[in-house]
Specification:
alpha/beta, single chain, 43% helix, 2 domains, Aspartate Aminotransferase, domain 1, Aspartate Aminotransferase, domain 2, seven-stranded mixed β-sheet, three-stranded antiparallel β-sheet, globular
């Protein structure tokens, strides 16, 4: 292995040195329980309150609208199930979402369908962008919740969340967005975005795995997902994971401060897309412009994505075929199928998700390494052989 290039930041990110340094004293010194009524407990409670306030400043919301969870999936479950059960008491039993949501949202909606809720899965266009007219048509007087992800984890498409929230609120419907991929990539101001709930996960922004957050707008009383003690204002039981909460606060501050630097990431992404799509029978999946700065999802015909990944890995390059949460599945990506990519072509797509740490030399190495891999794999493909035979006959 000549070098190592990590281009799978949408799956997870390493914990940064700054975050580790912020967490270290909490592990070693401020290890008290924030609920304990003594000096160690008060010390921990002060750190907990300070972290909540710092995160609120990042998102321009109230500290008491911030609730800590274990991950983005828990936050998604709490927001969707909590809102659905709340609104059913008001005679609303209908949920509207999109066909390209993360499985944490889709599987939660499927679980609610077993409870008798009705779910409408709205189509997206060929770039993965939600049609606001289709959303408006889907929302009825019986709708309890609209759930639209801020940015797609596979193809990077950014959705019109603020506009979707307006449509939802016109009919008294709660609005939730899974912002796991958007946080750190898009400046989020919760005082103007208009959503009632927003979920995020720490390990996507250089905080540890095992810490997430759910924003719940003041006045929205979701049903609890986890009952227990009086933590999180009695809305989420369980002793708070204080070191990770402190780490999350620091990671969010750093990510927010670095958003202006994303233009350089975007330029490197565009070079990657431009050069890779010069490979014959390759295509960008998703929007050319309305996408996350670090996301490049390219489909290569006549090859399997898993084979590409294996060869990339042997060359020291980490990438993905899509969501890490479904990487053990042999099914084609539901996101790619939803934007109209044929089943056989969906299996040949690779997602590169780069970051501030990705260098020009890293991009050079990907561009130097991948084309020969595609050529080598196509030489072994019967479909590629059939295509060449067909071309020869036409000539």
């Amino acid at each position: 292995m000549s070098r190592f290039v990590y281009a799978d930041n949408a799956a997870t990110t390493p914990v940064s040195e700054e975050v580790m340094e912020a967490m270290r004293p909490v592990f070693l010194e401020a290890w008290g329980n924030p609920s304990s009524q003594h000096t160690k407990g008060y010390e921990a409670k002060e750190l907990l309150d300070d972290s909540r306030a710092r995160i609120a400043r990042v998102f321009n919301c109230r500290p008491d609208e911030i609730y800590f969870t274990s991950c983005g999936t828990e936050s998604d479950n709490w927001a969707i199930k909590g809102a659905a059960h709340l609104m059913r008491k008001k005679g609303r039993d209908h949920i509207v979402t999109t066909k390209i949501e993360h499985h944490a949202v889709l599987h939660t909606c499927a679980a609610l369908e077993k409870e008798g809720f009705r779910v409408t899965y709205v189509d997206v266009d060929s770039e993965g962008i939600l049609s606001l007219d289709a959303l408006r048509d889907a929302v009825t007087e019986k709708t309890a919740l609209v759930a639209v992800m801020y940015a797609n984890n596979e193809i990077g498409t950014v959705q019109p969340v603020a506009e979707a929230a307006k449509i939802a609120h016109e009919k008294g419907v709660l609005m939730f967005t899974d912002a796991v991929q958007a946080v750190g990539n898009i400046k989020i101001d919760l005082s103007t975005l208009g959503v009632d709930m927003l979920a995020l996960s720490g390990h996507k922004i250089h905080a540890p795995k095992g810490i997430g957050m759910l924003y719940i707008k003041k006045g929205v009383r979701l049903e609890n997902l986890i009952d227990g003690g009086g933590q999180e204002k009695r809305r989420r039981g369980g002793t708070e994971n204080l070191p990770y909460i402190v780490g999350l606060a620091r990671a969010l501050e750093i990510a927010d401060a670095r958003i202006p630097e994303l233009e350089l990431v975007r330029q490197r992404r565009d070079r990657l897309i431009s050069e890779l799509t010069k490979i014959p029978y390759s295509k960008l999946n998703g929007s050319q412009t309305q996408r996350l700065a670090g996301n490049a999802n390219i489909g290569f015909e006549f090859v399997e994505g898993e084979s590409i990944l294996m060869w990339l890995d042997m060359a020291g390059i980490c990438a993905s075929t899509g969501s890490a949460c479904s990487s053990n599945s042999l099914d084609a990506s539901h996101v790619l199928l939803a934007i109209g990519v044929p089943h056989e072509k969906a299996h040949g797509s690779i997602r590169f998700s780069i970051s501030h740490e990705t260098t020009d030399e890293d991009i050079d190495y990907i561009l130097e390494t991948l084309p020969p891999i595609i050529e080598r794999l196509r030489a072994l493909s019967p479909l590629w052989e059939d295509l060449n035979k067909k071309k020869q006959k036409e000539d």
